[in-house]
Amino acid sequence: MILQHTSFAPACGVKEDFFSAVTARPYENFSAEAAALLTAYDQALQQYQCSPGSEVFLKLHLSDIANQYPILTGLLQGRKSFISIVGQPPAGFNRIALEAWHWSNTDKKICSDNLLECNTGNHRFLWHSCQRLQSKGSFDQTYESFVDLQQELTSYNANVKDHTIRTWLYCRDVDNNYIGLVKGRNRFFAENGLTSATHFIASTGIEGQAGQVDWLVKMDSVSSPELKEENWQYLHAFDMLSPTTLYGVSFERGTRLIFGDRSHFYISGTASIDHRGEVLYPGDVAAQTARMLDNIEALLQEGAGALSDIKQGTLYLRDTVDAPMVEKIIRRRLPDIALVTLKAPVCRPAWLVEMECIAVNAEGNASLTAL
After folding, report:
1. Three-state secondary structure along the chain?
2. Which one, of 314, 362, 304, 303, lies nearest residue 337 by Cα?
3. CB-based contacts of 43: which residues, under 8 Å, 6+ apart?
């Protein structure tokens, strides 16, 4: 197994660990490869003083989800974490890639098949995935996914506008179905008070498939009912990137969550874009990668962060032949992050590379509660 690990380990409070992993070589079949990866990952946790019970978030990327999904769900029985399974082939010849986020000293409760409640003592986090889409078309499925999340949050006296931190929207055949996704999200936001005058939500909208073949959209999210206005900072870096509304979409480039003892940074899927909303360096994946990193750095710096604070990154490529070169460029500036590289076309064909990331640093606000 090829495993990468980073952590944020304060003197006291919640320790956070991030993992990415793939098998070192393909196995004869998916079942053997997936079982080997999960076993090796679980065994490696001891090396980093992590228990399986500290696993909060587990995402698995598959090369052939239609056939592999039922096999993998069987292997995952009994895990008490939020699990997301996405059809996004790993770069190289692997059938499965893994990303995981661990928090120490937290209480978890599986509330339903699609909702995990994680309590750190000061804050509750709700990890949610819509599980029962009834409608057809990417517009209706996106809108229905947000309505489902809103209904779930109601039982916590919470709502999407004030308490949802981040969403991940995976779109089957993004070149044809992304516009419906955008319009469905725009409709829900307009109906629920999310505007350019208030705020949107950090998000990634990317090619990806659900286990259900008739789903054009799969949405995951994380929310926290107790967060107050002073916990939030929205990151724009307008000198480098345009407002997303300039080209008709509605998401935040990045969100900083400020706690008493640290900050979390959720950086949305970021590509080679300029302050006018234009694609920079068409056809040049190396130049696009460099600009993408510059944009991410600008977002982090606006919130008292730095590239060195990034713990986990997910790299999306239109053409995985580019993976070795792109990874080399990224490792020059981010040598230690837990990184997964996937085949997942971005919403505009001219964008050859995109990356989302999670960063953590000790830049908190002592007047606020710790994580």
Report:
1. CEEEEEEECCCCCCCEEEEEEECCCCCCCHHHHHHHHHHHHHHHHHHHCCCHHHEEEEEEEECCHHHHHHHHHHHCCCCCCEEEEEECCECCCCCEEEEEEEECCCEEEEEECCEEEEECCCCEEEEEECCCCCCCCHHHHHHHHHHHHHHHHHCCCCCHHHHEEEEEEEECCHHHHHHHHHHHHHHHHHHCCCCCCCCCCEEEEEECECCCCCCCEEEEEEECCCCCHHHEEEECCCCCCCCHHHHCCCCECEEEEECCCCEEEEEEEECCECCCCCECCCCCHHHHHHHHHHHHHHHHHHCCCCHHHEEEEEEEECCHHHHHHHHHHHHHHCCCCEEEEEECCCCCCCCCEEEEEEEEECCCCCCCCCC
2. 314
3. none
pLDDT, tens digit, 9 for 90 and up, residues 276-295? 999 999 999 999 999 999 99
Which of 307, 321, 297 has its CA nearest to residue 241?
297
Who contacts 197 (Cβ-Cβ below 8 Å, separation ≥6)? none
Q: What is the pTM of this model?
A: 0.97
> For residues 270 and 361, what is the distance between their CA atoms, to the nearest angstrom?
20
Residues, the chain? 371
Q: What is the pLDDT of residue 227?
A: 94
Strands 16-22 vs 353-361: parallel, antiparallel or unpaired: unpaired
Structure tokens at 71: 């096999």
Mean pLDDT by 10 residues, the chain (371 residues): 96 96 92 97 95 95 97 95 97 95 95 93 95 88 97 96 98 96 98 96 97 95 96 98 95 98 98 97 98 98 98 97 98 97 94 98 97 96
Please answer whether residues 243 and 178 qualify as being in contact, where contact means their C-beta atoms are separated by less than 8 angstroms.
no
> What pLDDT is attached to residue 26?
87
Tell me whether strands 310-317 and 263-270 are parallel, antiparallel or unpaired: unpaired
User: Of 180, 363, 149, which is closest to residue 261 (Cα–Cα)?
Assistant: 363
For residue 288 the two structure tokens come to 């696009």
